[in-house]
């Protein structure tokens, strides 16, 4: 038997007691390769029926999953940069006071915390886009070396990171 062209029924028949039946029709083509498509020899075939019995068993309710209303997007331009880059993301005013934007080096060490500047109204535009310029300097206002840095934005329980490359 070489079943091909399987046609399932349009619904599962409810048999009660958590059982169901799915009806299937298929063509048992005697020729390997399905002669209906003119491939292989025409040895005939037969329309056949079968059914699949289904036991649904016990269902349990999964815990409610909370999907965030929006995903935070973080970008910077230019990247690679020298000597500064503009870090951009969308943020509404209500969330701005809880936002943290921290720059880390490749070792995971904190280079600069830009969070306090996010609370200033000059960084928040009408559409909620925030643009902050990082001048390639650490918390002591000393220039950092060339290399890979990460900008990490944390708002509430969401966080996103962006890799940045400083070339001198």
Q: How would you describe this protein?
A:
The protein is an all-beta fold and 168 residues long. The chain has two domains: 53 residues, no CATH class; 93 residues, Macroglobulin (MG2) domain (Immunoglobulin-like, Sandwich). It has one helix and eleven strands, in the order ββββββαβββββ. The strands form three sheets. Strands 1, 2, 3 and 4 form a four-stranded antiparallel β-sheet that branches. A hairpin with a 2-residue loop joins strand 2 and strand 3. The longest helix is centred in the middle third of the chain and has 4 residues. 11% of the residues are buried. The mean pLDDT is 79.
Tag the structure with descriptive keywords:
4-stranded antiparallel sheet, about 0% helix, single chain, Immunoglobulin-like, mainly beta
Strand content: over 45%
| Distance between the ends | 70 Å
Looking at how many chains there are and whether they match, the oligomeric state comes to single chain
Q: Which structural class do you get from the secondary structure elements? A: mainly beta
Number of domains: 2
The beta-strand count equals 11
Unreliable sequence segments:
none
- Alpha plus pi helix count: 1
The largest β sheet comes out as: 4 strands, antiparallel
Shape: elongated
CATH level 3 topology of the largest domain: Immunoglobulin-like
Rg over CA atoms, rounded to whole Å, is 31 Å
The ordered H/E elements are EEEEEEHEEEEE
**What is the mean pLDDT?**
79
């Amino acid at each position: 038997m070489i079943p091909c062209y399987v046609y399932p029924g349009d619904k599962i028949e409810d048999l009660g007691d958590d059982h169901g039946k799915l009806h299937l029709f298929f063509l048992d083509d005697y020729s390997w390769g399905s002669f209906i498509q003119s491939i292989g020899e025409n040895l005939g075939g037969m329309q056949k029926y079968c059914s699949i019995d289904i036991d649904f068993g016990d269902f349990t309710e999964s815990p409610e999953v909370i999907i965030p209303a929006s995903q935070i997007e973080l970008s910077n331009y230019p990247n690679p940069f020298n000597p500064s880059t503009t870090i951009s993301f969308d943020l509404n005013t209500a969330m701005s006071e809880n936002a943290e934007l921290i720059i880390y080096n490749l070792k995971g060490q904190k280079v600069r915390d830009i969070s306090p500047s996010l609370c200033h109204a000059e960084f928040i535009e009408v559409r909620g886009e925030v643009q902050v310029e990082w001048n390639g300097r650490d918390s002591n206002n000393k220039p950092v070396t060339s290399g890979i840095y990460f900008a990490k934005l944390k708002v509430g329980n969401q966080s996103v990171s962006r890799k940045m490359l400083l070339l001198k």
